[in-house]
Amino acid sequence: MVLSFRHYRSETLTHSHDDFHQIIISHHGVLDLDVDGKGGEVRGRQIAFVPAGAKHAYRAQGMNRFLVIDLDARLAANAGIEQLWHQAGGGAYLSVARDIRFGDLENLLAVKPAFSQAGSDLSYPGARDFPLMTGVNANAAVASWEHARDLSGQYHMLPFLNDLLRAAHTGTKAGNVRYDPLQEQAGGIPLRLTRAMEWAAARLNETVSIAGMARIAALSESALFAAFERYVGCSPMRWLAAVRLDFGRDLLADSKNTETIGEIARQVGFQDQAAFSRAFSRRFGRSPAQYRKQCQLGDK
């Protein structure tokens, strides 16, 4: 299982992947998506489940950020995730019952629970969260869990996906599922907060202050903090730090980018390469140099 926050570009790209499903969850912005000829959007409480082998095209306009989960197809089948998806309607676009905030996802990704050995008695941590998993596929599930742990250490995302899909449902329009504007009022980010976020994201190589963001949002500093905690799930500076690192990762992954790591560090707002490398390693578990090398080798 591979998890990452991604920023999508405005040009339309198309591809498919045969060995893993892809779940896309919006933190901010709108992703236009076409999955095997069925058009729709990922935004707010509407997520996408792109099944393995499905040809899909995608693009996004303006500032955007999405959590993308590449979920091994074998793991999804053995852990009951695929069955929950089918019970939710089996569509590419699903509406979920609750808000998904950036800060909550960041906290979830930061968890590193202990992993104990398991047997067919389903005694391993989190087993109670998967009632669809029976003794028939228990051993296979354990093997898949071990594989997921070896790949990323993020097997604990499975209970999150289980809860997410359990209360999900397919949109009413099977051919072209569009976002309900009322969801923006129920769980989206208010326009004035979006304005401040876009302003800050356009100035990553500058000093961005709370006062400046509050001014753009037409809020007091305390009201800005409260709005971020409510709608984003973290403080403004924690959000900005994550955006800086994600943009830096995008630059490192770009094979056409010939800038040095030090130049990239300064471009995303770090004073020196050492500070950028420390923060990058803490967030992604590998140094900028290691990540760039892996991208060059096609092993992201």
UniProtKB/TrEMBL annotation:
Domain HTH araC/xylS-type as annotated: residue spans: 194-294
Keyword Transmembrane helix attached: no
Keywords: Activator, DNA-binding, Transcription, Transcription regulation
InterPro entries: AraC-bd, AraC_XylS_family_regulators, Homeodomain-like_sf, HTH_AraC, HTH_AraC-typ_CS, RmlC-like_jellyroll, RmlC_Cupin_sf, Tscrpt_reg_AraC-type_HTH
GO MF annotation terms: DNA-binding transcription factor activity; sequence-specific DNA binding
SMART domains for this protein: HTH_ARAC (SM00342)
UniProt entry tagged with the keyword Transcription: yes
Protein name as it appears in the record: HTH araC/xylS-type domain-containing protein
Organism: Thalassospira profundimaris
